[in-house]
Amino acid sequence: MTRYFKTGSVLCAAVVGLVSAVWIFSGTEADPSPSAVINMKPDGAAINSQTVDDSLSAPASVFEETGVDNEAFDPELNRQMVVARLREMFDGKLDHPRIQLQVIEKLIRYLKEVYPEAWQNHLMEYLTAAFPDQAKALYDQYLKYSQFTEWVSANYSTLISLNAEERKQLLWAKRRQYFSDQADVVWEMELKAEQMALSLQEIERRQEAPFQDKVNFYLAEINGIYDVQADTYRRSYQQKVMDQFLEVESVQADLRRMTPEARRENLTRFRAAVGLDDEAITRWSQLDSLRDERWEKGRDYMRARQELASVSADPDADSRLDDLRQSYFGAEAEIIKNEEHSGLFRFSQKRVYGKN
């Protein structure tokens, strides 16, 4: 019976180790976004999460060595599984500095789970087992990575005391100090995001330009910034591509001045230019119509509500207000009531055409 129990424990440990490896080493290595360490707080949280790769900021594994019977834990089997997973994800892709940092980050997260007190002692061991020819280069990246994160942590108070532009310049200076010419490659996605932000600011400055000219300028900027990756960027981040343009105030000013029909036509052309197919464009057009009706109803409701509120001596004001909400919103009346009691008046909020 003891022999069977130990065999079961070893098998259980292997399964738990495999689950842990798959959990931590899951993610999309094909989209090597900037490392989460770029904007790290002392506690590991991000100052600016916009450029943090979601796959790198996933929750850590629930597996810990202390959670498995020490007699059942098999370090060699554990290492073999992780090495196999690393090769599956990254073999043949390690020429890119961002990919190299992804390997380091994922492996460190895993080792901290399994060897919380001695994870550094195992880093080179795992790298050598997984990528013997590139292990030294990867470890050199780790050293630069470690020095940079230590600097960010030590200077966090200074960083948050700066304005956004000053912080950006200081971070870029330190990135280039530690990573030299590789910095622009490691943080390529953030660099492009910064260039895109400048393009959106330029659209805002072009307040007198026609709506379609702004669309043309925006799409040309995407092509110029992302170059051969422009189509992939538009497909992969379609919602973001639409939203960040529509959120520009000069764009919204154009849309507000249009008739509902003209607004729908211009939004349809914009979505087609971004790359939406006919089916998606039809769904968006239908949603626009529903939103128009809802906002019109909401504005009528707010006017009626204001008139009712002006009759301050009405002893049945609350009951009349309940009836008013019911007449406008039906089944949603109670939701609207609860929102208003919490101080939220949704139809007093600013409408962003094409988004809400």
Can you tell me about this structure?
With 356 residues, the protein is mainly alpha-helical. Helix content is 68%, strand content 0%. It is built from 17 helices and no strands. The chain has helices at 2-24, 75-90, 97-114, 120-130, 135-154, 156-161, 164-179, 183-186, 188-205, 211-226, 230-236, 238-246, 249-257, 260-274, 278-309, 317-329, 333-341. It starts with a helix and ends in a 15-residue tail after the last helix. Mean pLDDT is 82; it is low at 1-24 and 28-69.
Oligomer: single chain
Mean pLDDT: 82
Tell me how many strands there are: 0
Kindly name the structural category: mainly alpha
Number of helices: 17
What pattern of helices and strands is seen along the backbone?
HHHHHHHHHHHHHHHHH
Helix content: 55-70%
Low-confidence stretches: 1-24, 28-69
What's the overall geometry?
Answer: elongated
Measured by DSSP, the beta-strand proportion falls in under 5%
First and last CA, distance = 64 Å
Radius of gyration: 27 Å
Biggest beta sheet summary = none
